[in-house]
Write a structure and sequence with these properties.
The complex is a heterodimer of chains A (78) and B (412).
Chain A: H1 3-15, H2 36-50, H3 56-59, H4 65-77
Helix pairs in contact in A: 1-2, 1-4
Chain B: E1 5-13, H1 20-29, E2 34-36, E3 49-51, H2 64-67, H3 72-88, E4 100-105, H4 111-124, H5 133-137, H6 141-150, E5 156-159, H7 165-178, E6 184-192, H8 196-204, E7 233-242, H9 243-248, E8 255-264, H10 277-290, E9 299-301, H11 308-322, E10 330-332, H12 335-338, H13 345-359, E11 361-362, E12 385-386, E13 391-398, E14 402-409
Helix pairs in contact in B: 3-6, 7-13, 10-11
Classes of the chains: A mainly alpha (78), B alpha/beta (412).
Chain lengths: 78, 412
């Protein structure tokens, strides 16, 4: 499974949303009804799935589906 | 004059029923909820039995995303509260949300969540602790979820007094309504502690029955061969409402919560005071609060845990409180069938008191086959008894010496 598909799967699982809602511009809090605790859990799930650590200052930048996919692709290419 | 407080709705999820009707029906039939522990592998423990809520599937009640944020103890509370509120007929427009509260009794809280996150912390490090750990585990969060789901914006908290929690919750709710702090309070008990740590902890205290070869006869209150209580789980909620408020909205009234008394043993962390002295004072206080004499009580729902110490001490405390009349009053133990629901125990017992008044029938104390000479009162052994019940007293004691009694009577 590629990074994008895995990210989508995690978002569906953690936020209980439909796949069709998970578009690049979807904001976790504003569009996908996440609260601040959900976003922390989401980032922890990304860390677990991809075996990386995401620093707090980076976490704050991951507000949309697209930002998260781009960030993870970049980190995993390093 | 004190405001009067009535019960206008009830809801339940217990080891012998997923609602009030099923639970009560099974109590009358003598159905036993105790079986082998299925929630976890108990093979390493000397206690392999508990009363679990049967055929429970969280996703029948909550969506997938919600389930992960709700400890089982909160799930049970929300299910029972939904039934109680629907039963009461409360709906938008017939009450003021700012004067509608929630008071819960949970003796332990989210211990399943506690154990899961503790294991994660140890094996994967503290950075892997879920952001939902604290708001899932804390013992007051069930009260919060019930209020959020039903927009109940009045007084809201949890009372914690171990196995007496729900009785203290009911008593506290009674006082809050009498004092005018709320028009109604959705009040109940909830617990879900059939977990390795909790069962292991009570086992270490030698508090639990080890009758693994015969689970359905393990909880045997007042029987000479009793050897401890049986861990149980579930939740029961009642809607308590100020009488005039209930009448004004045309609510059906099941019974009246007429009195409450509480005391402390100041004696020992787990053993009840000699001769049930503390419990006697709680019962006397409840009678005085209700303005009733011992002879006015037709039926006592005992704490009746099936531990050697409790049942003997409680018998003595009933004699101390009721004198010669102790031999005439009907007594039973709901725990003989549902096991010990800990913080929720007094809530199911309050529901039983209401049902006994409404139906004129007292459910049996099951497994009482070899009478203990120290327990020589009428515990309604093994078969239900039809009897008009106009007033009941329900006793609950918690580790720490927390004694409580409530009086529920027919609404006239």
């Amino acid at each position: 499974m590629d990074i994008e598909a895995k990210v989508k799967q995690i978002i569906m699982d953690k936020l209980g949303v439909e796949e069709s809602q998970i578009v690049p511009e979807a904001n976790f809090i504003e569009d996908l009804r996440a609260d601040s605790l959900d976003t922390v859990e989401l980032v922890m799930a990304f860390e677990d799935e991809f075996g990386i650590q995401i620093q707090d200052e980076d976490q704050e930048k991951l507000r949309t589906v697209g930002q998260s996919i781009d960030y993870l692709k970049k980190r995993l290419a390093e | 004059m004190k405001k009067r407080v009535v019960i206008t709705g009830m809801g339940a999820i217990t080891p012998i029923g997923h609602n009030v009707k099923e639970t009560w029906g099974n109590l009358l039939k003598g159905t036993n909820g105790v079986g082998f522990i299925s929630r976890f592998d108990a093979s390493a423990l000397p206690v392999k039995i508990a009363a679990e809520v049967k055929n429970y599937n969280p996703e029948d009640h909550f969506d997938h995303k919600e389930v992960k944020k709700l400890d089982l103890y909160t799930q049970f509370a929300m299910i029972a509260a939904r039934e109680a509120i629907a039963d009461s007929g409360l709906a938008e427009g017939n009450y003021d949300p700012n004067r509608a509260g929630v008071i819960t009794g949970a003796g332990i809280g989210g211990i399943l969540t506690f154990e899961e996150e503790c294991n994660k912390c140890i094996t994967q490090g503290p950075r892997r602790i879920s952001p939902f750990f604290i708001p899932k585990m804390i013992g007051n969060i069930a009260a919060a979820h019930v209020s959020i789901e039903h927009n109940l914006k009045g007084i809201n908290f949890n009372v914690m007094s171990a196995c007496a929690s729900a009785n203290h919750a009911l008593g506290t709710a009674l006082r809050s309504i009498q004092y005018g702090d709320a028009d109604l309070i959705v009040c109940g008990g909830t617990e879900a502690a059939v977990t390795p740590l909790a069962v292991g902890g009570f086992t270490a205290m030698r508090a639990l029955s080890t009758r693994n070869d015969s689970p359905e006869t393990a909880s045997r209150p007042f029987d000479a061969q009793r050897d401890g209580f049986v861990m149980s789980e579930g939740s029961v909620f009642l809607v308590l409402e100020e009488l005039e408020h209930a009448k004004k909205r045309g609510a059906k009234i099941y019974a009246e919560l007429a009195g409450y008394g509480a005391s402390g043993d100041a004696y020992h962390i787990t053993a009840p005071a000699e001769n049930g002295e503390g419990s006697s004072r709680a019962m006397q206080a409840a009678l005085a609060d209700a303005g009733m004499k011992p002879e006015d009580i037709d039926y006592i729902n005992a704490h009746g845990t099936s531990t050697p110490l409790n049942d003997k001490g409680e018998t003595q405390s009933i004699k101390n409180t009721f004198g010669d009349y102790a031999y005439k009053v009907k007594i039973n133990s709901t725990k003989s069938m549902v096991g010990h629901m800990l913080g929720a125990a007094a809530a199911v017992e309050a529901m039983v008191c209401v049902k006994s008044i409404m139906n004129g029938i007292i459910h049996p104390t099951m497994n009482l086959v070899n009478p203990d000479p120290d327990c020589d009162l009428d515990y309604t052994p093994n078969v239900p008894v039809e009897k008009a019940v106009s007033a009941t007293l329900s006793n609950s004691l918690g580790f720490g010496g927390h004694n409580s009694a409530i009086i529920i009577k027919k609404y006239i």
